[in-house]
């Protein structure tokens, strides 16, 4: 057992924690503690037998995410656009329909109903200040209802509601009944618009990173060197009589002046704080459960669906795979189909067993793209709800009452304890861009606090 002394301890070596360390390392001694035996958090690569890698966690960057593109450039990585040519497919009542763009061609009445509901939702989202959604004149009303209840009032046709729900599942990895309407509106506004979050070219799914987004975290960790300690799950953060903090972890402990917690809210609840966090903070973290997502990728000899002028993108209210993409990497021969199991489906199939889940996913791929899709060279999926140190993806959800009851204090530091991670962002909440934004804020808070203490010490009378 060892006890190290640093100025700043950062709990969590996801992209947010690593970026906070990068921002502070030149002025202060920093240590990043990570429970896993790898860095990246909700970003992870999988290596296929042929040597190709694929993201089985967060993967996309798009327009408006300046911090991410800047980081990619700083780290010497490059991007390529997700394949977005040809026809998309809509599976409806057992039939496949081709379409182009974000909205499929369906019954004209249902299409009009869906269009009106989406336009109304977008207008409401534009009226929100993402820095303070609780201050909106209708905040309490919107935060008192679920997105599902709003949809039932604003989409009169069941088909329109079903298609809207497919989009919601793709964005939140949750069901509409799980979300506060205010949270859904804030989330869309945080990422520019719901249309932006759903779109490929020009939207949040536009670009991929060569080497994977987890590769970015690995490069960040190499920069930080021995400032990053793996396999060190934090058990407790204790305040000492002199005001410093002792952080107890599996491999020992360290003493520091400031702590940045860069974990998903559900994982922060696993840490014992002494003295205990304020009751409101604990209550807030309890009200931020994670979505449920299983990401599935099948590798084929080639992207054979492109021969049929198909984009690889499918929307299916029936599922169980309700959304797919062509995840093939530019310059590589293999064809990769990627699909998501989300919300209730992910929770159900989480306990189904790997073989049964694989068969169901490949059945879906075969329904969409033909029998060849049933026979991949390799298949992998990642159940993020079963991952020991994550327990859900993509990000935390806000149930009714959370934003108006606690949101004003979400990003507030608790004395020497600061909060980072995508769930603490103003812009691009739920995305890597939001993780970087929150890292900047937390690092600035720590720097200001340590600078103030230093000034006080320098002017103190002898």
Structural notes for this entry:
This protein has about 450 residues and is of the alpha/beta class. It has three domains: about 1-40 and about 210-290 and about 395-460, FAD/NAD(P)-binding domain, CATH 3.50.50; about 45-65 and about 75-100 and about 205-210 and about 295-385, Polyamine Oxidase, Chain A, domain 2, CATH 3.90.660.10; about 105-200, Guanine Nucleotide Dissociation Inhibitor, domain 1 (Orthogonal Bundle), CATH 1.10.405.10. It is about 35% helix and about 20% strand. It contains 15 helices and 21 strands. The strands form five sheets. Strands 8-7-17-18-19-16-20 form a seven-stranded mixed β-sheet, with helices on both faces. A hairpin with a 7-residue loop joins β17 and β18 (about 325). α1 runs parallel beside α9. The radius of gyration is 23 Å and the shape is globular. The model has no long low-confidence stretch (mean pLDDT about 95). Belongs to the flavin monoamine oxidase family. This is Monoamine oxidase.
Topology:
Elements: E1 2-5, E2 8-11, H1 15-24, E3 30-33, E4 45-47, E5 53-55, H2 66-74, E6 79-81, E7 87-92, E8 95-99, H3 108-126, H4 139-143, H5 147-154, H6 158-172, H7 181-190, H8 194-198, E9 207-209, H9 213-224, E10 228-229, E11 234-239, E12 245-249, E13 252-256, E14 258-261, H10 265-268, E15 272-274, H11 279-286, E16 293-300, E17 310-315, E18 323-326, E19 335-342, H12 343-349, H13 354-369, E20 378-383, H14 402-406, E21 417-419, H15 432-459
Parallel strand pairs: 1-13, 2-3, 2-14, 3-10, 7-17, 11-15, 14-21
Antiparallel strand pairs: 4-5, 6-9, 7-8, 11-12, 12-13, 16-19, 16-20, 17-18, 18-19
Organism: Microbulbifer donghaiensis
Binding site for FAD: 16, 34-35, 234, 423
Cofactor: FAD
């Amino acid at each position: 057992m060892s006890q190290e002394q640093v100025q700043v301890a950062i709990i969590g070596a996801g992209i947010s924690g690593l970026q906070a360390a990068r921002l502070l390392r030149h002025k202060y001694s920093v240590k990043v503690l990570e429970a896993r035996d790898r860095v990246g958090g909700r970003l992870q690569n999988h290596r296929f037998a042929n040597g190709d890698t694929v993201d089985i966690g967060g993967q996309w960057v798009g327009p408006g995410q300046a911090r991410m593109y800047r980081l990619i450039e700083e780290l010497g990585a490059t991007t390529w656009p997700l394949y977005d040519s040809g026809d998309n497919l809509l599976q409806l009542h057992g039939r496949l329909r081709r379409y182009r763009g974000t909205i499929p061609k369906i019954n004209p009445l249902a299409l009009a109903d869906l269009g009106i509901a989406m336009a109304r939702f977008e207008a409401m989202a534009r009226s929100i200040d993402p820095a303070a959604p609780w201050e909106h004149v209708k905040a309490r009303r919107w935060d008192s209802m679920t997105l599902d209840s709003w949809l039932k009032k604003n989409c009169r046709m069941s088909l329109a509601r079903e298609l809207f729900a497919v989009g919601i599942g793709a964005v939140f990895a949750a069901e509409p009944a799980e979300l506060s309407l205010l949270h859904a509106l804030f989330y869309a506004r945080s990422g520019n618009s719901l249309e932006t979050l759903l779109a490929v070219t020009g939207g949040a799914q536009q670009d991929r990173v060569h080497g994977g987004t987890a590769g970015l975290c690995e490069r960040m960790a190499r920069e930080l060197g021995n400032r990053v300690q793996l396999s060190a799950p934090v058990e407790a953060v204790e305040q000492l009589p002199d005001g410093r903090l002792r952080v107890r972890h599996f491999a020992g402990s360290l003493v520091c002046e400031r702590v940045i917690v860069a974990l998903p809210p559900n994982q922060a609840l696993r840490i014992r704080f002494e003295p205990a966090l304020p009751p409101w903070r604990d209550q807030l973290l309890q009200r931020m459960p994670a979505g449920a997502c299983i990401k599935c990728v099948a590798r084929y000899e080639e992207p054979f669906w492109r021969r049929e002028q198909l984009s690889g993108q499918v929307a299916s209210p029936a599922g169980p795979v309700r959304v797919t993409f062509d995840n093939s990497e530019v310059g590589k021969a293999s064809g990769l189909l990627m699909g998501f199991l989300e919300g209730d489906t992910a929770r159900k199939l989480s306990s189904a067993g790997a073989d049964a889940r694989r068969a169901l996913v490949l059945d879906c791929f075969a329904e969409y793209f033909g029998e060849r899709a049933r026979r991949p060279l390799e298949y992998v999926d990642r159940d993020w709800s079963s991952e020991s140190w994550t327990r859900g993806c993509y990000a935390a959800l806000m149930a009714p009452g959370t934003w108006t009851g606690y949101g004003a204090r979400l990003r507030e530091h608790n004395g020497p304890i600061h909060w980072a991670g995508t769930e603490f962002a103003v812009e691009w909440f739920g995305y890597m861009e939001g993780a970087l934004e929150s890292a900047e804020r937390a690092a600035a808070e720590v720097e200001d606090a340590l600078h103030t203490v230093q000034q006080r010490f320098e002017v103190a009378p002898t």
